[in-house]
Amino acid sequence: MSYQTITTRLTTDGCGIITLNRPDCRNAISILMRREISACLTAWQDDPSVGCVIVTGAGTAFSAGFDLEEFRQTERHAELLDSSSRYHRDLWRFPKPTIAAINGPAMGGGFDLACLCDLRIAASTASFGHPEIKFGAPPLMTPLRWIVGEGHARELCLTGRKIKAEEALRIGLVSAVVEPEALPESSQHLAARILEAPAGALRYLKQTFIAGSDFEEAFALEHDRAFKEIILPLFAERAATHG
Where are the domains of the chain? Predict the structure, then answer.
């Protein structure tokens, strides 16, 4: 399958690699990118040649977050909500292990993408933050809370503070920090270790992760309701004010 905003490839040992491929805009996550990620995950979920998925970014950034230019186009707000709701759920519900190989800054929606993967490994150049709180958009907190705990999650979400890879390792956000040139090999080595287990056992374990969480209730509140009641009205008001 051919894509415009991502590239994909399969390794010989059963790992599928998705690369966010908008380096000219720091891999900002657009409506089309969300739809293409959803389409790729749907195609791979029952493909026996794919046992594990790595998500990474082209260029020097993992992802700068959502493409804010689209938020200023009020006629696209229904598409924004629909594509965002589906993409996040498709990533969370994907039935095989997922790894975020974070090659650079992961901000806003890029931070969320990393948190929705099962594991995270970062380059020393990676950084993380939720700057969207500063312009009035509440970030997703629950996936982050599950990884780093309530205290760290509240502080990062409330302040929008950016943290570097070393602090991300210290608080448990990532499992390893490596030099940028070593990230592809290190993430694929991690995938290979996962794939030593039988596919059926990994799929069952992923089902327990999904079923054992309160993701849907939290996501409906933190994403769907926030989009409808706060985020999209905020951008619509700003568009009206600025013509």
Answer: 6-181+199-241
**The model's pTM:** 0.97
The total of other beta-carbon atoms located within 10 Å of residue 76's CB is 14
Distance of CA 66 to the CA centre of its chain: 10
Residue 109 has pLDDT above 80, yes or no: yes
Task: Judge whether 132 counts as a catalytic residue.
Answer: yes
In terms of Cβ atoms closer than 10 Å to its own Cβ (0-12, 13-18, 19+), residue 52 is buried
Q: How far is 20 from 67, CA to CA, in rounded Å?
A: 13
Annotated active-site residue in 36, 69, 75, 132: 132
Q: Which residue has the tokens 């799929």?
A: 203
Q: Which CATH number fits domain 6-181+199-241: 3.20.20.70, 3.60.20.10, 3.90.226.10, 3.40.50.2020?
A: 3.90.226.10
| pLDDT per position as a tens digit, 28-66 | 999 999 999 999 999 999 999 999 999 999 999 999 999
Give Cβ neighbours of residue 165 (< 8 Å, ≥ 6 apart): 102, 122, 123, 124, 125, 126, 127, 174, 177
